[in-house]
Design brief:
Blueprint (H helix, E strand, L loop, with lengths): L23 H5 L3 E4 L3 E4 L2 E10 L8 E11 L2 E4 L3 E4 L8 E2 L6 E10 L7 E11 L2 E12 L1 E2 L22 E10 L15 H13 L5 E12 L5 H26 L10 E8 L1 H9 L6 H9 L4 H14 L1 H11 L1 E10 L4 H10 L6 H10 L4 H14 L4 H13 L3 H14 L3 H13 L3 H9 L4 H14 L2 H8 L5 H9 L3 H10 L5 H13 L3 H14 L1 H7 L11
Helix pairs in contact: 2-3, 4-7, 5-6, 6-7, 8-9, 9-10, 10-11, 11-12, 12-13, 13-14, 13-15, 14-15, 15-16, 15-17, 16-17, 17-18, 18-19, 19-20, 20-21
Amino acid sequence: MKHLVFKSLSLAVLALAFTSCNGWKELAKDYYTVNPNPLEVKNGQVSYDINGQFPAKVFKKAYALEITPELVYANGTTPFSSVVYQGESFPGNYTVIPFEEGKAVTYTASTPYKADMQQSTLMGKLKGMKGNKTKDLGSIKLAQGVITTALLVEDDFLPAYAPSNFVRDTETSQSGLIHFLVNSWVVRPAQLKNAGYVALCNFVKGSVKDTNIVITSIDFIGHASPEGEATLNENLSIDRAKAVEKYFAEVVKKAKIAGADASGFYSEKGEGADWDGFFDLLANSNISDKDMIKRTLEGEPLLATKEKTLKSLESTYAPIRDQILPDLRRTEVKVNYTIKGRTDEQILALAKSNPSVLTANELIYAAESLTKDTNEQMAILKSAIAVYPNDYRGYNNLGVILWDNGDKAAGAIQLAKAASLEKNAVTNNNCGVMAGAKGDNIAAMQALKDSDVAESAYNQGILNIKGGDYAAAAAQTKAYDSYDSALAQLLNGDNAAAINTLNSLGNDNAKVLYLKAVAYARNGQNVKAKETLAEVAKLDPAMAAAAQKDLEFRNVLK
C-alpha cells in the first residue's frame, strides 16, 4: 500500500543540475530531511517522510523536475511513485514552484517490509524536463537501511487460568419458628414441638459431635401481625423474641455449645408489624379479592388508617383472620454457624485418591495451589473433568498448563473445549491467545477486547507492538516485567525503563542481552552496548553476527 502526500521535499537545488551545475548533489543535502533516518519497520511497513524546501530564485520557470524514490537492496529494488515539480512557465499540470518565493513540499510513502530491505539504501532518482526534452540527472542517497527492532517482538501471549472460587469455611444458618396467639407473647407448649423448631434443636444438639460445624451466634427475631396499633406491635414483637430466647437458651446450655456464654452470642430484635410478610402471604393465597385488598390497603395514606382497614377486612375474609395473620405472629430462631472446610492436606489427599467426594472448587484449588508438580496438577484437572464434565474450568486450566509447557496443540484443544462450554472473560482471553499464536491478529484483538482479565491487557500490548501503537503497548504491558514489556518501553522511547525491566528479568539469555544492547545504544551508552554485544557473542554467535548488520549499532560498531 502506498500513500503519497506532498508536505515538504527540499530538493530545489537539484534543478540547478539541469543547468549544468556540477555541485547540485552536495547542495541538495542542505535542503531536505528524511524521517526516520535510518528507516524503520512499523506495523509491517517501511514508511517515511521526505521534508524539504525549494529556495527562492532557484527553480527555473521553464523547467520541471521529476523525483522517483526507490529502495535499493541486494536482491532487488522497490520503487515508489514519482512526483514532478515544475516552474511557473513549464507547460504541465504539476506542483508549481514559484521562482521568487520557492516552496516547501513533502513526500510520504510506505511499502510492506521484506527481509532483504534491512541492508538497503533509499535513493532519489532525478529527471529534468524542459519542453519536450528530458535529461537523467542521476540519483542521490536519501537514507540508509531499515531498523527492524519492532520485529523482535515475541508471541509471548499469556493464557489465563480460571478461578477456583474456593472458600474453605462457609458461613450459613438454619432457622425455626414459634407462633403466638393474637396479642400474646406466651410460648405455648405445642409450639415447642413443631417440626421446624424440633429440627433446629436437634441440629444444635448434634453440632457438638461434628467437628466441622461451629455455632457462632443465635438471633431471635420477633414479629407481629399488622392489624394492631404500631407501638403495641413493636413492644409485642420484642417480647416474643425474648420469650423464645428463654426456652432455646436452655437447649443450647444443655448441648454445651462452646462460646454460648460470650457477650453478643444471643441477640433479640423486634421487627414490629410485618406488612411485607402480609402482602407476600396475600399474594400467594386463594382469596379471590386479593388484588382489590392490596390496592385498598396500599391506598391508605396513614398507617393508623391502614391498620383499621385491615382489622375490618379481617372480619370479612376468613382466610386473612384464620391463616395469614396467625402466620405473622411469630419469632424466628436463627442459628448462625460456620461449616469448617477440609484442610489442604485432606483436599490434596482426596484429589489424588478419591476426587469424586470433592467439590469442583476444591479440585480446581488443589491443582492450582496445593502442588507445584505439573504432572500432579494435570492428573487432578483430568479428574475434575471426569467428575464435573460441564465445568469449563478443568479443561481451561489443563489447557493453560499444556500451553505453558510447550504443547500448544494439545493445550489449544482443551482451551477450545472450555470456550465451548462457557463464554466469559477467561475463555475470551484464551481464544485471543490462540488466534494471536496463529497470526490472526484481528480476531485475537477482538477476543481480547471482550475480556477484562489482567492477561488480556498484556496480550493486547503484544498485538499493539506488532501494530505500531507503541504508547498503548507500553501502557498495557507495564504491569509485567517481561521481554515484550521492555520492547514496548524501548519502542515508545523510554530507553531507561526498558533497561530497568530487562535487568529485573534475571535471565540474561542472548535475546534479552541483545535487546539490552539496543536500549544502551539508543540511550547513548555505546560502551555498555558494545560490552553487552560481547556477551551476546559468547551465547549466540549467529545473533552477534546479525548485530553487525543492525543499524541500531551504527554508532557502536564503528
